[in-house]
Each structure stands twice: as structure tokens, then as C-alpha cells.
Design brief:
The chain is mainly β. It has a single domain, classed as Trypsin-like serine proteases (Thrombin, subunit H, Beta Barrel), CATH 2.40.10.10. The chain contains two helices and twelve strands. It has a seven-stranded antiparallel β-sheet. It has a five-stranded mixed β-sheet with strand order 1-4-5-6-2, covered by helices on one side. It comes from Sphaeramia orbicularis (orbiculate cardinalfish). GO terms for molecular function: serine-type endopeptidase activity. InterPro entries: Peptidase_S1_PA, Peptidase_S1_PA_chymotrypsin, Trypsin_dom, TRYPSIN_HIS. Pfam families: Trypsin. Keywords: Disulfide bond, Signal, Zymogen.
């Protein structure tokens, strides 16, 4: 688990938290096997004297992908328990069965989970999602409050999406939204490359 407190250097996707609604408690989830998700990061920030948490995932030793309101302060030290994840692109097969991990609260308390938890999700048809920039899942199984910015990891072990939002539709359906990483791969790759070039000047 990578924890940071100061704001400095992180790759954020400003379009991730479009709805930014509370995602409630996680249903149908379970404790993750220790060190089974070495790419996961827990980011902690102080805003107006209050502590806020976000999930994120390691792209390399310098970049964590997360929601726009969370930032990384220093390089990660890579090890067998701290490793980057591969990002999906448009050449990868469409995902169906995925996992979301995080430390978001999983009950009615205000406390974050002390252990990494995960939930298995089945994605719904993109036409039913009604958002071409997102993957969607439906039902009580969903990310928890505090999990925004975490990865949607699918069958081939790649990160396909970023936990974005949750809402209840007008007909009562509970929907979770995950921003598609493939739609932003060019921007992500360019941002990381530009940062490396700047350091070498």
C-alpha cells in the first residue's frame, strides 16, 4: 500500500469525477489477499483541516492514476509488493468480468477500511450504460465511498477503467461508472513522456 500526504506530482484525469456522488458502502465485497494488488495506492490529503482519501493505481515509480482531487507527493519505491499495472488500449478485447479494489468504507461508519477490499463486477452492455466514455455495472455490488480513482481491473489483468461515480437512475437502477482508460491513453502516455523529457533537460 502506498500512502502519501503532501500534494505534488500525480497524473490525474480531470474528467473522471463527472457526477462525484457518494458511492455508499460496498456490497458483496471481500478482503483482498495481502499483496495481491501491488499496483493499488491509498492517497491521503488534507483540505481545510479535514482528511480525505482516494484510491489510485501505480503506472510507474512516478505516476499514480487517480481522481482529479488527489495528488502524489513523491516517487514510489518499487518492490515485489509495489508494482505498476498495465493500462488497456483500444486493441484489447472488450471487458466483461472485472474487479475493483479499495479502502473505501464498507459499512455505515465514517471510517476507511483498514484492509484492502475488492468486489467482483460484471459490466453491462455499453448501450445500456448511456455513456460512451464509461464502462458501467449495475446492482448492489459497487465501489465504496473513498474508492474513487481506483482501477477497474478485468480478465487480462489490465486496468480498463477508473472508478468515477455512482448514481441511482430514475427507474431505481443502481449504476456504477468507470471512465474508460483507452479513450485517454494518448493523453496519459504523452503526459508521462513529457514529464520524463522535462527531467532530462
Amino acid at each position: 500500500m502506498l500512502q502519501v500526504e503532501k500534494l505534488w506530482h500525480v497524473l490525474t484525469m480531470l474528467l473522471l469525477v463527472r457526477y462525484l456522488s457518494h458511492t455508499g458502502k460496498i456490497y458483496g465485497g471481500h478482503e483482498a489477499v495481502p499483496h495481491s494488488r501491488p499496483y493499488m495506492a491509498l492517497l491521503e490529503t488534507m483540505v481545510n483541516g479535514k482528511t480525505h482519501h482516494c484510491g489510485g493505481f501505480l503506472l510507474n515509480e512516478e505516476f499514480v492514476m487517480t481522481a482529479a482531487h488527489c495528488h502524489l507527493s513523491s516517487k514510489a519505491t518499487l518492490s515485489s509488493n509495489v508494482r505498476p499495472i498495465v493500462l488497456a488500449d483500444h486493441n484489447d478485447p472488450a471487458p466483461e468480468s472485472c474487479i475493483v479494489s479499495g479502502w473505501g468504507r464498507h459499512d455505515n461508519t465514517e471510517l476507511m477500511s483498514v484492509v484492502l477490499r475488492e468486489v467482483n463486477l460484471t459490466l453491462i452492455n455499453n448501450e445500456l450504460c448511456e455513456d460512451h466514455n464509461s464502462y458501467c455495472s449495475e446492482g448492489e455490488k459497487r465501489p465504496a465511498e473513498g474508492d474513487s480513482g481506483g482501477p477497474l481491473v478485468c480478465e487480462n489483468g489490465k486496468a480498463y477503467g477508473v472508478v468515477s461515480s455512482y448514481k441511482t437512475t430514475t427507474n431505481g437502477q443502481k449504476m456504477s461508472y468507470f471512465t474508460k482508460i483507452s479513450d485517454y491513453r494518448e493523453w496519459i502516455d504523452c503526459t508521462m513522456k513529457y514529464n520524463s523529457l522535462q527531467k532530462n533537460l
